[in-house]
Design a protein that fits this description.
- The structure is a single chain.
- The chain is α/β, with parallel strands linked by helices and 334 residues long.
- The chain has two domains: 7-142 and 278-319, Metallo-beta-lactamase, Chain A; 147-273, Rossmann fold.
- The chain contains eight helices and 19 strands.
- It has helices at residues 55-62, 147-163, 177-184, 196-205, 223-226, 261-266, 281-291, 303-312, and strands spanning 7-8, 13-15, 20-22, 30-32, 47-51, 67-70, 76-78, 81-87, 95-101, 104-108, 130-135, 167-171, 192-194, 215-216, 230-233, 249-254, 271-273, 295-301, 316-319.
- The longest helix has 17 residues, at 147-163.
- The two termini are 39 Å apart.
């Protein structure tokens, strides 16, 4: 039986022909990293290869590592296997990994979204024979509004809270979602304050993206200063003693999981904005079609449901398990 170009094993996604892993979840000698989120970029590998813009992110999160940056579309050869990175549109520095060997082409999507967000390089379909796709929001119920509409709603929410004399606290992951929010908030409404985790990551990325000014919340920051303004914080800050100095405040979460009202109630969030850094149902399907692939491997998410639907469309589709974060037990920020 022919060995597949990419295979899933106990350490990650392995290319035997090149002796290299992609987004390995256990320590390996050499790994290609799709993006900087902790479930895809882990500590302990001997050599990291990733997109140039992801290098400072990985170094900020993992410390001093042996890392090499590549440009989008730049080909590099490992043991006669040709690799290249292509925009995934997920977060800054995110990439799909194209693998070519003996006329066969596979693409590992990593995490991706097909809507240009004005922050990271937009997703580009890469022609291939086999496409490895995430299925984070692989149910028909997930259907996103255009980004411009969502940010119109967020800015209006902030204005209303300001008029009522309350601070607006908006939750989003420190890498990716926070910068997307920051880029599209209207600074003319008021000042934008940040939690330390958000501020530190944003500072790493300021030389790549033109963000509006922010103010770090410190011990000296007063309730009066915050009143009427907006605070961006990671989901982990909700319910902490840190948030008490915001009183009176209103909370909101920007996440694809806000599609479900129950998700907002479980997190005791006042308002939910449906904004995800992943594709919705139609986005995944359209992205797969755009590759022209024949085979699809579905990972992390609603894999069984999505693979079954793809088989009905005529694809040779199957599932594989990974150690990436499961959408069935979300942390509240994607």
């Amino acid at each position: 039986m022919k060995t597949p170009l990419l295979a899933f094993n106990s350490k990650g996604i392995y290319c035997e022909a090149a002796n290299v892993y992609i987004d390995a979840w256990k320590p390996v000698d050499k790994v290609i990293i799709s993006h900087g989120h902790a479930d895809h970029s882990r500590w302990g590998h001997q050599k990291y290869i990733t997109h140039h813009d992801n290098v400072p992110i990985v170094e900020h999160r993992l410390g001093e590592v042996n890392i090499e940056g590549k440009a989008y579309g730049e080909s590099f050869i490992i043991n006669n296997v040709k690799f290249s990175l292509h925009p995934a549109g997920h977060i800054i520095g995110s990439a799909q990994v194209r693998v070519e060997h003996k006329g066969e082409v596979w693409v590992f999507s990593g995490d991706y979204k097909d809507e240009a967000d004005g922050v990271c390089s937009p997703f580009e379909p890469v022609p291939c024979h086999t496409f490895i796709t995430e299925c984070t929001f692989g149910l028909p119920t997930f259907k996103w509004k255009p980004q411009a509409k969502v940010f119109e709603e967020i800015n209006q929410w902030w204005k209303q809270n300001q008029a009522e004399g309350r601070t607006s606290v908006l939750f989003g992951y420190s890498l990716g979602k926070a910068q997307r929010l920051l880029k599209h908030l209207n600074p003319e409404i008021g000042k934008i304050y940040t939690h330390g985790a958000i501020e530190n990551m944003t500072e790493v990325l300021r030389n790549l993206i033109d963000f509006p000014p922010t103010q770090l919340i410190t011990r000296e920051t007063t309730k009066t200063e915050l009143n009427g303004n907006l605070v961006i914080a990671p989901p982990s800050a909700h319910g902490s003693t840190w948030i008490k100095k915001m009183t009176p405040y209103v909370t909101a979460s920007a996440s694809g999981w806000m599609t479900f009202r129950g998700a907002r109630r479980r997190r005791a969030i006042d308002k939910g904005f449906v904004l995800s850094d992943h594709c919705d149902w139609n986005g995944i399907i359209n992205s797969i079609k755009a590759t022209g692939c024949e085979k699809v491997i579905c990972t992390h998410g609603y894999t069984d449901i999505f693979a079954k639907y793809l088989r009905e469309l005529g694809y040779d589709a199957r599932t594989e398990k990974t150690q990436y974060e499961s959408p069935l037990a979300p942390k509240g920020g994607i």
